[in-house]
From TrEMBL:
This is 6-phosphogluconolactonase. Pfam families: Glucosamine_iso. Belongs to the glucosamine/galactosamine-6-phosphate isomerase family. 6-phosphogluconolactonase subfamily. It comes from Flavobacterium chungangensis. Its EC number is 3.1.1.31.
Amino acid sequence: MIQIHNNTEEINTAAADLFVESAQKAIAAKGKFTAVLTGGSSPDGIYRLLASDAYKSKIDWNKVYIFWGDERWVPLNDDLSNAKMSYSTLLSHVPIPQENIFEMYKDGVTPEEYAAEYEKSIRTVLGEEGKFDLILLGMGDDGHTASLFPGEAVLEEQTKWVDAYYLAPQKMYRITLTAPIINKAEKIVVVAFGEKKINALKEVTTGEYNPTLYPMQLIKPVSGELLFLVDKVAAGTN
């Protein structure tokens, strides 16, 4: 499903409302809400809105569990860290217990070792079903999502929930949720806006199925909902 909005402000509001709705529903049903955050610049406005007085009081943050969809393998105080951005815009401004936050980085271990450890953390919180309540994703200009980049072996992963690998074009390690665990989610929300997203959005949603070239096409929920929140520019309707 694709929702086309006039601008990023409308996208931010729609995403924040969905976050609150999902949180309230999950907490009422089972006493906790499990969410996956995304990095990059796309969610900045969403996180700041959730941290505002108008929104943060709507959620029982003691019952919220936060994970990430992917991360650059850099220390948490590095400006490239998705976690650092999420703390500065959201997590440091809401009353969520630190033990409920699962950053995708740890000193003293390899990315591969921590990928296995991170998967164990997911299983501890979610159980063997591994069904997140809400996953927020961005989409790159090349059609990638999380750290599922075109042409990489991680696209073929079928058993691991979390994987880590060296991304040669960027000369750095990445750690990421894999398509199988993402697709288990109750709700997946993809945020994409701006002119640079036009081609990728068109190919992903209406083009020939070629996930090696456009990895976002791998995201097909098993039983949940997939929702694209885009602006008129990205949708090519402006």
